[in-house]
């Protein structure tokens, strides 16, 4: 019985045994030009790469989630312009929602040492700020690929709900993202 199954479906069996093809090129093909910065090569690798994303760095959190202190949050075009200027996307696909907070990186890092709270999706891996903070919620209204993403800017004042990630090198939790700005009373 088993022998007849193997003989009848030999091609399917061989296809299952094949190794997946590795993509050629990527960001490394640009390294031969010599005058391209390492930061740009890292950006290309993140956008075009097929592996897992790199853990967050202080620079990345500042770029992605910390609001510009001199720019008013009530600006109607805040989200559309900031998302474009800061390159907030996932492999050039528009991000459906995003948050910018008016806090320092040190404050977010301090939040990572707070007790665990429920995230919006119900998992227990977020941290909730004890003080109200100002921020902006960006909601995608139009577009699906950069640079055609247009966002609605919604000002919020509430408690920040952030996610943190363990950093092995320093043996501490560091900020990873913003889950929500919760309006608690």
From TrEMBL:
SMART domains attached to this UniProt entry: RNAse_Pc
**GO cellular-component term (any):** extracellular region
Query: What species is this protein from?
Result: Prolemur simus (Greater bamboo lemur)
First-listed, main subcellular location of the protein, grouped into a coarse class = secreted
- Recall the GO molecular function terms of this protein's record: nucleic acid binding
Keyword Transferase listed: no
Q: Which domain of life is it from?
A: Eukaryota
| Family designation | Belongs to the pancreatic ribonuclease family.
Which named protein is this?
Inactive ribonuclease-like protein 9
SUPFAM superfamilies in alphabetical order: RNase A-like
Q: Write out the GO biological process terms.
A: defense response to Gram-positive bacterium
Q: Which UniProt keywords apply?
A: Disulfide bond, Glycoprotein, Secreted, Signal
Signal peptide span:
1-25
Protein localization: Secreted
What function is annotated for this protein?
Does not exhibit any ribonuclease activity.
Q: In what residue span(s) does the Ribonuclease A-domain domain sit?
A: 58-182
């Amino acid at each position: 019985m088993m022998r007849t199954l193997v003989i009848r479906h030999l091609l399917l069996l061989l296809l299952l045994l094949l190794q997946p093809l590795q993509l050629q090129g990527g960001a490394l093909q640009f390294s031969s030009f010599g005058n391209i910065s390492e930061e740009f090569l890292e950006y290309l690798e993140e956008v075009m790469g097929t592996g897992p994303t790199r853990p967050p760095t202080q620079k990345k959190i500042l770029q992605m989630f910390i609001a510009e202190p001199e720019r008013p949050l009530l600006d109607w075009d805040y989200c559309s312009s900031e998302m474009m200027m800061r390159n907030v996307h996932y492999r050039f696909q528009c991000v459906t929602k995003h948050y910018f907070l008016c806090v320092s990186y040190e404050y977010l890092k301090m939040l990572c040492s707070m007790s665990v709270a429920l995230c919006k999706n119900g998992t227990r891996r977020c941290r909730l700020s004890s003080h109200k903070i100002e921020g902006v919620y960006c909601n995608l209204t139009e577009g699906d690929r950069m640079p055609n993403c247009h966002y609605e800017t919604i000002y919020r004042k509430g408690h920040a709900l952030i996610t943190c990630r363990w950093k092995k090198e320093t043996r501490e939790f560091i900020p990873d993202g913003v889950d929500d700005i919760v309006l608690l009373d």
